[in-house]
């Protein structure tokens, strides 16, 4: 009878096999690959976030323009006031700073009909007045969030007394001249919807984001270019990747990119900011100039204006 041999799978006397493990070099390679992927994805994510805030900013500006247009319709074409210094009644009231003033956080300046002319039309949605890219607080980078990022074109609207005194003085205008610059050209101020013929409603800006470090009242002053001189009076924002949001008299809104962002203050959320370098023949001032007003006598702009 044959005896069947059995073989055992266990092998005594042999050390157990070691588990596979990454070497230090392999780990370093993995870390480098992850870092490279992160470096590639970060700009994409940043741009996506910037597009999202830009979309929200335009939505806010459009909602404000809807409210603005409803006010104009209810008041027989009369445009809301533009009060310098933050008084009321005004299109909206209040003035902001980094000192914790009431205007930094008082939403009734935006929604209360006794102070804000368009207040009843925004349905108490105070948040639409703050650009999502604006992170300013009542003490700069600290305290409660401030409530407003936008200001109105100073070439639009009567003053708080309902007359023309001081209106558009920074332009200078046909009714007021603050003496800034030596321009011999006087510019239009718009008091009724029917006044808006030049520039056209689709080209006349009504609201724009203002630099959080320099915003105060709800009025955005623009000095029209003269000769080679192009000066920002109130600083626009460049928080949307060297761009800002604006809305126009026809109701549309857009994000506009600045050609010379170095001539606009960089937002620091403090009062200790470095003033931007002013540039002669700045095409950005030419661009905003033809969207702010037009020569009152019907003449051509005294600066390049095909923008």
Short account of what is shown:
20% of the residues lie in helices and 7% in strands. It has 307 residues and is an alpha+beta fold.
Q: What does it look like?
A:
- This protein is of the alpha+beta class and 307 residues long.
- The protein has one domain.
- The protein has three helices and five strands.
- A five-stranded mixed β-sheet has the order 3-1-2-4-5, covered by helices on one side.
- A hairpin with a 4-residue loop joins strand 4 and strand 5.
- It is globular, with a radius of gyration of 29 Å.
Spell out the key features of this protein.
single chain; 307 residues; alpha+beta; five-stranded mixed beta sheet; 3 helices; 7% strand; globular; disordered N terminus
- Structural class estimated from helices and strands: alpha+beta
Strands side by side in the biggest sheet: 3-1-2-4-5
CA distance, first residue to last residue: 108 Å
Q: Identify the quaternary structure here.
A: single chain
Structural domains: how many: 1
Q: For the residues shown, what is the average pLDDT?
A: 88
According to DSSP, the number of beta strands is: 5
DSSP helix fraction = 10-25%
Largest sheet: 5 strands, mixed
Total DSSP helices: 3
Which H/E pattern describes the elements?
A: HHEEEEEH
Poorly predicted spans: 1-11
General shape:
globular
Beta percentage is 5-15%
Radius of gyration (Å): 29 Å
